[in-house]
Amino acid sequence: MDPINNPYAPGAGQRPPELAGRDEQLRTFEVVLERIAKGRPERSIVLTGLRGVGKTVLLNTLRSAAVRRGWGSGKFEARPDQGLRRPVSAALHTAVRELGHPSSEDVEQVLGVIKSFALRDAAPNAKIRDRWQPGIDVPAVPGRADSGDIEIDLVEVLTDVGGLAQDVGKGVAIFIDEIQDLRAEDVSAVCAACHEISQNGLPVIVVGAGLPHVPAVFSASKSYSERLFRYSRIDRLDPEAATQALQAPAEDENAEWDADALAAMYDATGGYPYFIQAYGKVAWDLAPRSPITVEDVRMAAPEAEAELAIGFFGSRFERATPGEREYLRAMADLAYDSSEGDQPVEAVPTSDVAKHLNRKPQSLSPARDALMKKGLIYSGERGQIAFTVPHFGRYLRAQTA
């Protein structure tokens, strides 16, 4: 098969040639856009799921849907070492420009508020050279969104941006990737802002994407957060959607997969979109001709797994310290030891990890907390821990075999 025409695209956040299995989320978002445009109340949206299930791809697709409707939009990736002011101000700056409001005076007023919001990122007594400049070419508007309290200021800046959108019968959507990495005070601010703009009927929504424990993070910040957001769990594809993800791109290149090859691909990938693209790319390159057969898939498996071991699993494993790696391996052993059949359990008790390592639970808290901050594991419920990366346990066991 000609590698130049290979349609599969294994990349971080890279849109696959066929976005299969996400029709429900796309339809839901279209309804949300329509309702908000008509002044109807709607909740903001948070996509949750493991790494490699296509959350970022879907987030970008939803943003494209908003842009097609003439909405203002902005996107940023949350980072634990950065507050909200800089990325939010940049996202809102983009959104305001996209709205195309006819009154330059009104636009400049709102941009001035955004600038005021952004400049408050620095301490009031900071030197000019230490102040971050947001690149907004209008004077800052003092006394609005610059109190220094991120919760108050975010409400004010989104209220003003929402009013601008309302003037032109459009909306504004702010897209936040890796939303679990927001600081605690910023999570509280996002919840408060979404609550306020919802109560005021303003056409502004937040669309986030993050790991499975995001609902717990938000609930711990504000008890009413479960009523503010529509949480949508993004999971692996079912066999039908996985077949579509493989077959449709192949057919566009006048090629196909036979039925046994598709079944073998599903067994190898578990239906995870990133793995489907990774295995599909290698199988295409190694197959001598169409249709791609089960033997082609078997030949491709070692190379695909080697690439995943380096780029998908290995890069994450290398970030862990020796003590943290010991914790990860214990989790993997317990997940498989507790399994029924070939599929490991998703979560294991932290107390069992301590027993497996013959350690006191308290002594392992630093390693567990560090792994959570690095985004390698998460806690969906108290006393339980799980990998954020699918098949990570299998990779770890293969490393020690």
UniProtKB/TrEMBL annotation:
Alphabetized InterPro entries for the sequence: AAA_16, Cyt_c-like_dom, P-loop_NTPase
Gene Ontology MF annotations: ATP binding
Keyword Transferase attached: no
Limits of the Cytochrome c domain: 166-332
Pfam families: AAA_16 (PF13191)
Superkingdom as given in the UniProt entry: Bacteria
Keyword Iron: yes
SUPFAM superfamilies referenced in this protein's UniProt entry, alphabetically: P-loop containing nucleoside triphosphate hydrolases (SSF52540)
UniProt region (Disordered), positions on chain: 1-21
Record keywords, A-Z: ATP-binding, Heme, Iron, Metal-binding, Nucleotide-binding
Transmembrane residue ranges: none
Classification via PANTHER family: ATPASE DOMAIN-CONTAINING PROTEIN (PTHR34301:SF8), DNA-BINDING PROTEIN-RELATED (PTHR34301)
Protein name from the UniProt record: ATP-binding protein
Source organism of the structure: Ammonicoccus fulvus
